[in-house]
UniProtKB/TrEMBL annotation:
PANTHER family assigned to the protein according to its UniProt record, in alphabetical order: RHAMNOSYLTRANSFERASE WBBL (PTHR43179)
Keyword Transferase attributed: yes
InterPro entries, sorted: Glyco_trans_2-like, Nucleotide-diphossugar_trans
Limits of the Glycosyltransferase 2-like domain: 4-134
GO molecular function, one term: transferase activity
Protein name in the entry: Putative glycosyl transferase
Keywords attached to this entry: Transferase
A UniProt-annotated Pfam family: Glycos_transf_2
Organism the protein comes from: uncultured Desulfobacterium sp
Length: 314
């Protein structure tokens, strides 16, 4: 079998059917689809069981997170390649076949990913450098937008680049990432300590540190609606502090694991300073919508930065 496709789902009944249908329509190589459901409360599982008899469905009784759920799926997978795919994606123009062909032709490549576009075919920045205090500082101080022509300030999501050519990158977004199955197993899969966020960053980091290449392949195109699971959790809240805390906890764990304790303390201090600045700057702001959102973000940053324990996995 060429590729095992694992889709982690959480309350995505509105989009997952289109995703599965697009795989079946646009893929010629041999494949299997494994859906790992993280205790959805909608009719996702019933919908899959009824409409897609060739899909293997794993139903978790609780939400075990993105990393652990992917590992569950790939543990029973049989393909030469493993494809992590979000349920809010649509395969376009034989994208999976193109990724498989590229990997077959380039044995030094361990991980690759496609060009991601939005519903209106607008480019989505799906590649990035590894996290750094400098990139975060440039984002917090808005140097990214103040000096758009200076590459040093626009490293976040590689915004200085037009995403037009095939090239080595450090990180590819986990919404559509393909990895050699033997490499995935050699790396012991995703780190289960990540509940949400940074799990694919950590996988790419370990792959590159081990000598593998991570490549962006623009000839393969996948449409990504973006954030359906998060949207279902956010609902009408200004900022979902629970989801944001997962992001911060995962960030601090990544720094501590891969860069060391001092680097983790440094990014915490930077987050704390920016959080306090957001609160102070927006306290007297007249626009209530912007004021509420930015103060809430500042409070979430401060809370995450001073949290005693890094707790990312349930």
């Amino acid at each position: 079998m060429d590729v095992s496709i694992v889709i982690v789902s959480y309350n995505t009944s509105s989009v997952i059917d289109e995703c599965i249908e697009s795989i079946e329509k646009e893929t010629r190589c041999s494949f299997e689809i494994i859906v790992v459901d993280n205790a959805s409360t909608d009719d996702s599982c019933e919908q899959i069981a009824k409409r897609h008899h060739n899909v293997r469905l794993i139903e978790n009784r609780q939400n075990v997170g993105f990393a652990r759920a992917n590992n569950q799926g790939f543990e029973v997978a049989q393909g030469r390649y493993f494809l992590m795919l979000n349920p809010d994606t649509v395969i376009l123009d034989n994208a999976i076949d193109k990724l498989i062909h590229f990997m077959d032709e380039n044995p030094s490549v361990g991980i690759c990913g496609p060009r991601n576009v939005g519903p209106n075919r607008e480019l989505q920045y799906s590649c990035d450098h590894f996290p750094s205090i400098w990139n975060t500082f440039c984002s917090y101080t808005n140097l990214i937008n103040r000096y758009p022509n200076i590459k040093l300030f626009r490293r976040s999501r590689m915004q200085y680049w037009d995403y037009a050519e095939t090239r080595d990158v450090q990180k590819i977004m986990g919404c559509s990432l393909i990895v050699r199955s033997d490499l995935y197993k050699h790396l012991d899969g995703l780190d289960n300590n990540f509940f949400m966020y940074f799990e694919e960053t950590d996988l790419c980091f370990r792959a590159i540190m081990g000598g593998s290449r991570v490549i962006y392949v623009p000839s393969a195109v996948i449409m990504h609606y973006g954030g359906e699971s998060s949207k279902n959790q956010i609902m009408n809240c200004v900022i979902n502090k629970t989801v944001y805390s997962y992001y911060l906890s995962s960030q601090y764990y990544f720094y501590k694991k891969n860069y060391g304790y001092l680097a983790m303390l440094a990014i915490r201090c930077l987050d704390l300073c920016y959080g306090l600045a957001l609160i102070a700057k927006n306290t007297i702001r007249r626009d209530k919508v912007i004021k509420t959102h930015r103060i809430a973000k500042g409070q979430a940053l401060c809370a995450g930065a001073i949290a005693r324990h890094i707790s990312v996995a349930k």
